[in-house]
Design goal:
Length: about 140
C-alpha cells in the first residue's frame, strides 16, 4: 500500500458501517456495529456518536484500548485500526458531531445526557487486500 492515509481514508469515507471493539471486565473483546464515523482527522482520529448509557461506553471508561474495523465488501478488503477510545461529553465535541435528525436517538437534543462522542485515536493498523495483510504505524 503506497499511501495508507489516502487508501484507508477513502475506504472509511465510502462505508456506511464501521465496527468498534472494546474490552470487557473479563478482558474479552466486544464488537459492535456503528453508523459510519461522523468525522475523521486523517486516519489517526475518528469520531462516532453514541449513547452515554451504552455498554461499550462503560467498557471504554474502564479500559480505553479499542479497535475500529472497516471493510469494503465489494473488493473484499478491510482495515483494522488499533488504539484508544475516549468518551467525550463536553459541549464542543457534542456540537461538532450533532446532525439534523439526531433527536430521533437523543430526544433532548445536543444537551441530552445520553448523547456522547467517542474519539478514537489510532496508533497502528493492519490492512487486508488481494489475499495479503500488511501492518503499518500511524504517525502523529
Amino acid at each position: 500500500m503506497r499511501d495508507a492515509e489516502k487508501t484507508i481514508g477513502n475506504m472509511i469515507d465510502k462505508q456506511k458501517t464501521a465496527f468498534i471493539a472494546s474490552v470487557d471486565e473479563d478482558g474479552i473483546p466486544n464488537m459492535k456495529a456503528m453508523l459510519a464515523p461522523r468525522k475523521r482527522e486523517g486516519i489517526r482520529i475518528i469520531y462516532f456518536s453514541t449513547n452515554t448509557s451504552s455498554q461499550h461506553v462503560a467498557q471504554y471508561r474502564n479500559n480505553p484500548k479499542a479497535g475500529v474495523y472497516v471493510y469494503d465488501r465489494r473488493f473484499f478488503r478491510g482495515v483494522l485500526l488499533k488504539g484508544t477510545m475516549e468518551v467525550m461529553e463536553d459541549s464542543e465535541h457534542k456540537e461538532m458531531l450533532w446532525q439534523f435528525g439526531d433527536t430521533m436517538y437523543y430526544p433532548k437534543g445536543v444537551t441530552d445526557p445520553d448523547y456522547c462522542v467517542l474519539r478514537f485515536t489510532a496508533a497502528k493498523g493492519r490492512y487486508y487486500s488481494n489475499f495479503k495483510s500488511e501492518d503499518f504505524d500511524i504517525k502523529e
